[in-house]
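pasting for the record
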Amino acid sequence: MVQEQAEALLTMATVQGFPLYAGVGDMMAGLGADHAWPGRGGAEPDGRGAGGVQGERAGDAFMESYRLQGELLLWQATPDVAQPEACFQHALAIARRQQAKSWELRAAVSLSRLWQQQGKRAEARELLGPIYAWFTEGFDTADLQEAKALLAALT
């Protein structure tokens, strides 16, 4: 599954001209080949298995890869919004299992932005508001500034 996701991300990023995301695809492919994923060495999908700190980093990459895949899917000429939404939901679920609030915020911003475009403003606000409110510092970071601006637009 990791190899499939990595290849999909790498292909889409290459076709669309996003070298940064192509690098993420390469990294995912390398992680998959190193057996740091489910069914290969006992690691959980969120990276909390036998891999220790390296496994946690792999989990972060895995989680972020779902979010990025969702973002890239939205760039298609006629995107099927069900696929990006599923990617964002999966990234959100992994972040919540890991209790990784920064990654949860990123996934929530992506999903909330999609919902905003679909006219689901209340749902977007209900998702993003509590996650943003959890933070007590770091409000000068790009992620929190983006979340704040999106929340303001949803009000």
